Amino acid sequence: MRRGGRLREQFSLGWACIFTGAMVLFSLFPVYWVLATSLKTRRDGLANPPLWIFDPTAANYLKLWTHETFKYTFLNSVIVTGSGVLLSLALAIPTAYAIVRMKVRGRSLVGIWLILAYMLPEFLFVLPMFSLYQWTGLYDTHVGLALMYQVHVLPLSIWLLSSFFREINPAIDEAARIEGASHLHILARIYIPCTLPGMAATAILNAIWIWNELAIALGLTFSKAQTVTLGVTGFRGYAALDWGAMTGASIIAIIPMLLFALVAQKHIVRGLTFGAVKG
To answer: Within a 10 A sphere around the Cβ of 80, how many other Cβ atoms?
Structure first.
């Protein structure tokens, strides 16, 4: 019986490995195809049937290196992503602390608002803000784009940080308050140091979302603050597509967040599982 059970277990494990490998290949195939197209000449990229074996070329990436507009959009994404993440944390940290540790009226309604605001589509906010941004001068600016991104990333940040703050024993800040510490002192000396993994995970998730966002950038920018996601579409002409340059731009746009996620992977896992296992 033991031998039969062991064989069934090995058989199930083998099928699980095969299925997992197939899913990984299926999910990575689009990335491979974009990368392969970016290394093809224009003629090879348009070949029908597609060429699986070809002489790779770096011409498309050299074209991007000298393309001023694309480099400008890449820099815009760096600026907007960095400022958007910092602004979301600066607003979310005290808000989450107030929700968790202070008597705030309507806390349940705040939770509902956080969920709804995160789930609503981006264009729902872009349309009414278009005229307001033109009137206030925020249209097509880094500041305006970073502010608008808070509509999405701020609810997520507050929701995540609130869950992290709840893992801290209330007796700790109660003892600190008895000693005369203010809420600001408790937040800076206790809550922020104890939840750094959670804050890192929140910042990483916000950065990935802002970097990859398209709808808001499309609606609230024209030329000065266009992000890299719009820069990728800049190689689309009136009657033709420069597939080589477009796919090369896509790979360049993917690389920063891919490296960022790989380097910060342990922080994401540690942050999102913060407090999940208690001794």
So the answer is: 26
d(CA 182, CA 188): 10
Q: Which architecture does CATH list for 59-272?
A: Orthogonal Bundle (1.10)
Element of type H or E holding 61:
helix 59-65
Name which residue leads in pLDDT, 203 or 274. Answer: 203
Q: If you ran DSSP here, which 8-state letter would residue 85 be given? A: H
Would the pLDDT of 110 be above 80?
no
Cβ burial of 194 (10 Å; 0-12, 13-18, 19+) is: middle
Tell me whether residue 244 is exposed, middle or buried, using C-beta atoms within 10 angstroms of its C-beta: 0 to 12, 13 to 18, 19 or more. Answer: buried
Q: Considering the chain, what is the average pLDDT of its residues?
A: 82
Residue 251 near residue 34, CB atoms below 8 Å: yes
Indicate the pTM of the whole model: 0.83
Q: Residue 80: is its pLDDT beyond 90?
A: yes
Kindly tell me if the per-residue pLDDT of 1 is higher than 50: no
| Residues above pLDDT 70, as percent of the chain | 87
- Coil vs helix vs strand at 243: helix
Cα angle 90-185-181, degrees, rounded to a multiple of 5? 155
Question: Ranked by mean pLDDT, which of 1-5, 102-106, 167-171 comes out on top?
Answer: 167-171
CA max distance for the chain = 78
Distance (Å, whole) CA 67 – CA 81 = 22
State how far Cα 135 lies from the chain centre.
29
Q: Quote the crossing angle between the two packed helices 107-119 and 142-165, to the nearest 10°.
A: 130
Instruction: State the CB neighbour count (10 A cutoff) for residue 212.
Output: 15
